[in-house]
């Protein structure tokens, strides 16, 4: 009753209300002054604006849906971009000299790192794309042996031809019915992705020796593909979401959805592994060596028979999913962007068609084949003509299609399947351009930006020009540290030749017998994932041609 009414009994009982208000005002002024000074210092700096504690996270989140173009804008102004984040610092690089330093010269200092591994572990586990050191070397050695195998190359050629023909048959029926077709999503009952189906079926056949049939004419439901896409989107979001660990702990929001998706993925993957193990056992029991399969999964299963290799079902699961993301998503995405580039550049479409026609005539003469007389209105006649053409496409002869190779490569320059690739930093270092990077941070080379930089490709860098890759009619490679679609250095993509083989097989058939036109008003933009997938697919109308 007799206490001073000016005392604040709730929070600070020994401070009067006036004193309390003064303290709050001083603290607020200090905080505002701190923010003001922080922002004032940035008035002449390049790069994204940062805030105390949050760094550039706010601007990154605001530009998340267009992140690759956001980075390209800053990297066009400066070849190196330093982006502070709440718990780390990202250094983005687009200069080939810096890229070579990170991917080759000082390779051991820039592993995938613990940060990247923790973000991607739920999906990729300890697979080849998510590990470093001895574990990575052992997996790469085994995979390298398989990719160098003539048996695998010949088998891949047959499989890629088979599934390209299945896709052609679906498009043939769609063209007869005058349907709009989505080159990533056919607008049918199931809304599934055609190219994704083709490459998923292919990688499962080539990589794991199993037929899963997602490209069947009735386009069956594929829960694995859908779950894999969902998981891919969510783990990508983790890179700029500081709250993902809390959501994971509480199993709420996107992390709860991720957990459900991983269960579907694992159920599918472990069933593939058990099926292949059972087939291998049955083959050995019958002593039928002719039925032995030479797929990648079988190779790892055989290695697992040696207990010293310590290969468990979990290890095999990680192998499967790493090769799925390598053989399915990247190839399908590139095929979609390639079709988009071809149909939006008429002169490219016509020059490519001319090359494919000339190739067909030359191969028919070599093989002493009389070309069938087809009819675009007769489905059976048309399909027989396509099949005849496909038989002329072999691993060696596809190498003659220099312009097709240039079209695919130019697509990858502007629309690389992996638009960003982050690396950890083990020790403090200085990049060739003088940029200092600190241990514990991340360095990310950015293929999407690199392909658009005039300082890398000249004043026409933004233009789609397959001709830039040709010299006197023959394809000419660029430095892998400048054209980084397949990475470079010790981690350069083992499946590069296989990817080109499948893409050339599919495009040779599609662009020889079909014309594509973009549906008016259909938006074409990328979706933020680890892979440069199209957000709304690629909706086209189809016409046949001979």
Automatic annotation (TrEMBL):
The chain crosses the membrane at residues 20-37. This is Cytochrome P450. GO terms for molecular function: heme binding; iron ion binding; oxidoreductase activity, acting on paired donors, with incorporation or reduction of molecular oxygen, reduced iron-sulfur protein as one donor, and incorporation of one atom of oxygen. Signal peptide: none annotated. It comes from the Eukaryota. Keywords: Heme, Iron, Membrane, Metal-binding, Monooxygenase, Oxidoreductase, Transmembrane, Transmembrane helix. It comes from Thlaspi arvense (Field penny-cress). Gene3D superfamilies: Cytochrome P450. Coiled coil: none annotated. The keyword Oxidoreductase applies.
